[in-house]
Amino acid sequence: MTQEIKVALSDGVLIATLSRPDKKNAITNEMYGALADAVARANEDDEIRVLLIQAEGDTFTAGNDIAEFAAQATGNGPDERHVLRFLRALATATVPVVAAVQGKAVGVGTTMLLHCDYVLLAEDALLITPFVNLALVPEAASSYLLPLRIGHARAFEMFALGDPVPADAAVTWGMANRITGVAELHTEARRIAGKLAARPNGSLTAMKRLMRDAERLVTQMDDESAVFVERLASAEAREAFMAFAQKRQPDFTKIVRQSSRPR
Ligand code: COA
């Protein structure tokens, strides 16, 4: 069992903490597995009334572990991609989910927030979706949820250019609820989760179910996943992963242009 996801239950709140700060909490397949188990537990255990996702260190998460992306690109990936199990569980979560975000939230670090019900940002939070920088496509149903949440123009720019969105813009655009100080983040998130845990849970979970079309989200994830797997094996993605490993900028200009066609 990985030590890089810590799970603790306290007064009806299940707290899942990303704990790989030396690698900026980059998420491995094993960590996705532990996160998926935590969400599944929150869905099944009647003692759990709220799920809180948080992270140690100065970065919420650097997103998917890029070394593992590179392994998948060359056919050396894991038998089961736990990320899909995690994202499906999150999209169909019955209990309210609170997220506490400090520093950079890259890739899935941002897209998972679209499935959370209360997002608390530290004042240094930066939301970044660099899928196209890595020659990939958005996942976690974010190709559907992000334009819905913040409008096509902003979502296109976030996805296509991968520029960081600071905390104040994220709140103004409706991607998060509130901003707090870095030092207060976890205490404040725990307070909000406790407040939600004290609400009538039947009412809260029924309200959540009415607000989210889980079936639609899972369909979108399946569509994205098919394209994502194709992109992982592309020459463009290989160049992007190699450039990351070699700590240089990728050069996509020598790769023959490939237009995406409807599937
Ligand atoms: N996958 C694997 N390892 C990662 C990682 C990732 N997504 N992000 C960071 N790391 C590792 C680095 O390789 C480095 O390891 P090392 O100390 O063994 O060299 C360590 O974490 C620290 O990262 P570093 O880049 O030195 O920190 P930084 O503060 O300068 O930058 C980030 C932090 C998050 C901005 C930068 O690491 C980054 O851009 N990471 C990639 C993000 C990304 O594209 N994720 C995929 C999204 S789809």
TrEMBL record:
Subcellular location: Peroxisome
Primary location class: other
Keyword vocabulary terms for this entry: Isomerase, Peroxisome
InterPro entries (alphabetical): ClpP/crotonase-like_dom_sf (IPR029045), ECH/Chromodomain_protein (IPR051053), Enoyl-CoA_hydra/iso (IPR001753)
Signal peptide: none
Keyword field contains Cell membrane: no
CDD domains found in the cross-reference section: crotonase-like
Record keyword Endoplasmic reticulum present: no
Protein name as annotated: Enoyl-CoA hydratase
Organism: Paraburkholderia unamae
Lineage: Bacteria, Pseudomonadati, Pseudomonadota, Betaproteobacteria, Burkholderiales
